[in-house]
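User: My instructor asked us to take a sequence, write out its structure as tokens, and then describe one feature of it. I'm not sure where to start. Here is the sequence I was given:
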Amino acid sequence: MNSSLTLRTIATQLGLEDLTAENQAIDPPVTVGYASDLLSDVLAHAPAGAVLVTTQAHLNVLAVASHVGLAAVIFTGGVQPSPDVLLRAVEEGIPAFRTLCTSFDVAGRLYALGLRGGTR
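Assistant: Let's start with the prediction itself. The structure tokens for your sequence are:
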């Protein structure tokens, strides 16, 4: 496991588009990842501090991310969250990123960087 990964390192290494530049000061170490499109699964199992990989891009994703205490959300498959979703991400202090890559590919690339999955 790579304990030296930060959000900025992940974003740079994966070529992620930063959707919430206002949150650039937020750059915590990231030690766990979680991939799911089922928000009830994220609520029940994602650990605090995880990076969520998902294709879901609606306001409930940010509500769940805030409740769980996620470090960031990576929207995959070219999904573009609406302006209200991005505004909520900024308000909640949750960095949000976007990529054209699939969730499968992002999870694999995170694993290759040393990030591992986990649950609470």
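For the description part of your assignment, you could build on this observation: The mean pLDDT is 93. Try explaining in your own words what that tells you about the chain.
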